[in-house]
Structure formats: C-alpha cells, structure tokens
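Good morning,

Attaching, inline, the backbone tokens for the sequence recovery test we're adding to the shared suite. The designed sequence is right after.
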C-alpha cells in the first residue's frame, strides 16, 4: 500500500521551519547514526517500520532471506499491547500513552512477519490490537480513534487476510471493514465514476482519490500488498452493492485515469506542480493485476520500467519494494526491470541478506547506541520540503494526528 507521509512532514515543517536553517547539513553525526539493521538512510521518524516491513516483504517475495538482525529490529519495534508506532528510536523503553501507534505500520509489519514465518506471537498480538481499535463503522483510521479512511481500512484488511483471519467476520457493532469501504465508494457516473475517496470532506462529500482507489480495490478484494495476476476480468462500473463490485468500479476508474496520462498517474501535492506519481502508479498496477485487469497493468508496468529509476534511487527501500510488488503482480522479472536489478538495489539499502554459512548470532548483533536518533531530522525534513520532495517517504496523502 502507498502510505504517503507528506502531510505529516509538511506539518512538522510548518511548526519548526522558521527556526531551522534551510541550508544546514542534515547528515547525522556518528553518535546519531541510524540503526544498523534498518533499511534506508533517511530519517525514519515517520516511516521506519513501514519501509522496513516493505523491504522485508519484498525480499521474501523474490526468494531472498533477509538479514536476521533486520527482522529482529522490526519485531522489537512492537509495543507490549501489540501495536506498532511509525518508529521507536529506543525500543528498550516501554511504550506509554504518548506513543503514537499507527495502524498502517502495524498492518505492514503483520504482512511482512507473516510472510517470513516464525513470528506468530508477534503477529497475533498485532492483529489483536488492530481489532481492539476498530471503529464503529467497521473501518480504521491511521491512528486509533481517527475517522476511518480507505487506505488504512484496506491495509488492515490485507493484514487480517495475511494472518488467516476472515476480514468480513471482523466486526464492530455489527459492521465489517467492507461496510466502511462501501461507504467511501463513489457512485458511477459524474466526477469520480466508481473511485474511492480517502475520507468524506468537512461537508460529508466524497471526492475521487487515485491513491485511495488503488488501496480500496485491494481492500475490497481482501488482498494484501503481494498478489499474483488474477483471472481475466472486465472492470465495468455498476452500483457498488458488494465489495467485489466496488473493486470492479475502482479498477475501471484507475484504468481510465492511467490511460489519460500515458499509462501513469499524476500527483498534485498542495503547493507543488503536478508530477508523475510513481508510487501510486505501482500500487495501481498491483490493484489491477489482482483483479485480472492485466492489459492496463502491463502497460503501466512498462512505463514504470522506463521511468521510475531516478525516483526509486532517491526514495529508497519502500520505493524499490513497491516496484517489486508491481513486477511480481504482472509476472515481470524484478531482476531485469527496464535493465535494472530491483532486488540488488533494494538489498543495497540495508544489511546484506543471509547467505549460506552465515550464522544467526553474528547477524543479530546490534550497535547499542544506534537506535538513538538525534535532532538532525528536523533540519533534514525542512531541507527535503524546501526542494520539493517531501513525498519521498512514499506514504499516503493524508493528515496524521501529531
């Protein structure tokens, strides 16, 4: 799922930007180094667990066994109640009421750790926590108690399905996640034409959102981030009386939106010029392939092969993972993706995967001080916003409760 963190970044910048030198060097000092087990070299405050989960899930998808210490780092990020925050710099310190738990990070971790196997206690607690924070309408928001949104509800559905749960049987006050999704689906005809909205606006109106639609199609199908090509299916818009029809409607919208812009989607962040949205395009490929709408999915994955290299290199492990998921969903070789080896590039962003003869004990060694992250991230965030690439955390277009 394409969980965009840009809103959270911009919110942080608005608070601290005036006091932070825009040209300062964001590089951490040795004492403020990133955890050695973490994938990626950018500030993990908003996406540490997310990008780690995607990296590990993508490696498993292509038959790569991740470094044991990277898996252990993810496991240690869990709070005692089962939830995950976006990032905990010191996992030895217990979570408390101030720890901002994150349904998206928790769901991504469940999908990754379930795929890797051997972490039933961790995933079981995480699923229990997700159930405990389900909203009365059957859905989930990004943070516990937040209004349900399509993206969060859909990624939780993916986690439930990965863990062996039946999402339609996970109810709150008689409402399932699918009830929440159907309320966020736009009718056919007019603006939106079968798309999903992220959330209703202040007036209760729904507006089409391609990012939410890609997530909503997967959620309505009960699928997670990793899919195989589905059976050939026509995406025809009709009244969304069932999750399956809502998925078909969303797929129809995505197909049209992709075709309008030469097989990719566009992003228009507040205050920024419209530009190609590589992450959302990759997510749309996965959603369409899961439904069997392979014609447009294959056209769009070809566009990604030609166009996404610079974005992925700049964005890091989550971006490589999204491209690997898109390649996998369409039967494309991720080791020859437009001439690039996505697997090798992903592996290079973190600890080397396990190899024959490598001992688990040596791989699990951690630098005791490496989990403490200094104040340099404030400067880094402002610098990122200043050059117009605040979307690089590859997270959803949504406001996070700060």
């Amino acid at each position: 799922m394409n969980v965009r963190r840009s809103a959270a970044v911009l919110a942080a910048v608005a608070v601290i930007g005036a006091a932070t030198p825009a040209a300062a060097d964001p590089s951490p000092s040795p004492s403020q180094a990133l955890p050695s087990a973490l994938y990626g070299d950018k500030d993990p405050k908003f996406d540490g667990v997310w990008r780690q989960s995607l990296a590990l899930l993508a490696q498993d998808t292509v038959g790569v066994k991740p470094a044991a210490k990277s898996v252990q780092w993810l496991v240690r990020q869990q709070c005692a109640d089962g939830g995950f925050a976006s990032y905990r710099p010191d996992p030895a310190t217990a979570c408390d009421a101030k720890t901002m738990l994150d349904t998206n990070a928790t769901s991504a971790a469940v999908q990754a750790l379930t795929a890797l196997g051997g972490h039933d206690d961790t995933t079981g607690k995480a699923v229990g926590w997700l159930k405990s924070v389900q909203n009365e309408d059957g859905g989930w928001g990004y943070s516990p108690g937040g209004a349900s949104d399509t993206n969060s509800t859909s990624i939780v559905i993916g986690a439930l399905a990965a863990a062996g749960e039946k999402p339609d049987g996970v109810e709150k006050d008689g409402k399932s996640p699918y009830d929440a999704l159907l309320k966020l689906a736009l009718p056919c005809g007019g603006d939106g034409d079968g798309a999903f909205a992220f959330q209703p606006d202040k007036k209760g109106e729904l507006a089409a959102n391609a990012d939410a639609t890609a997530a909503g199609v997967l959620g309505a199908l009960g699928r997670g981030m990793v899919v195989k090509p589905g059976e050939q299916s026509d995406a025809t818009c009709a009244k969304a009386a069932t999750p399956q029809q809502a998925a078909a409607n969303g797929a129809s919208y995505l197909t049209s939106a992709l075709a309008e812009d030469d097989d990719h989607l566009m992003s228009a962040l507040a205050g920024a010029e419209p530009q190609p949205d590589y992450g959302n395009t990759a997510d749309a490929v996965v959603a369409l392939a899961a439904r069997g709408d392979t014609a447009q999915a294959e056209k769009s994955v070809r566009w990604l092969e030609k166009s996404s290299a610079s974005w992925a290199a700049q964005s890091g492990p989550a971006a490589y993972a999204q491209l690997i998921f898109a390649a996998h969903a369409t039967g494309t070789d991720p080791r020859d993706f437009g001439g690039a080896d996505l697997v090798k590039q992903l592996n290079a962003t973190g600890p080397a995967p396990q190899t024959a003869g490598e001992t688990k004990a040596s791989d699990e060694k951690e630098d005791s001080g490496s989990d403490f992250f200094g104040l340099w991230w404030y400067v880094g965030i402002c610098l990122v916003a200043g050059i117009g690439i605040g979307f690089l955390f590859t997270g959803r277009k949504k406001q996070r409760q700060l």
